[in-house]
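User: I'm preparing a small set of examples for a lab meeting where we compare how different chains pack in three dimensions. I only have the primary sequence for this one, and I'd like the structure in token form so I can line it up with the others. Please keep the answer compact; I'll paste it straight into my notes.
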Amino acid sequence: MTSADTADTAIADMPFEAALRELEGIVGRLERGDVPLEESIELYARGDALRRHCDKLLRAAEAKVEKIQLAEDGSASGTTPLDVD
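Assistant: Understood. Below is the structure token output for the 85-residue chain.
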């Protein structure tokens, strides 16, 4: 297993909040422009992997969100899947 594979595995295990926090840190470093070119390329690649991971987690969360159906008396009577369109 290469170090890139290990990094990808570590990202896959990250909760959304941790991945987003690291991604924000990477963006900040790249925006400042004080990172050598080779490190910038590595940071960009890791940032892209983190972005894809965050996107995947958000899509999974959206799929779990449900709308509450209300009965005539206003009480919850069930749920239906979220209509994302």
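A couple of notes for your slides: Strands lie at 66-70, 76-81. The radius of gyration is 19 Å.

User: Perfect, thanks.
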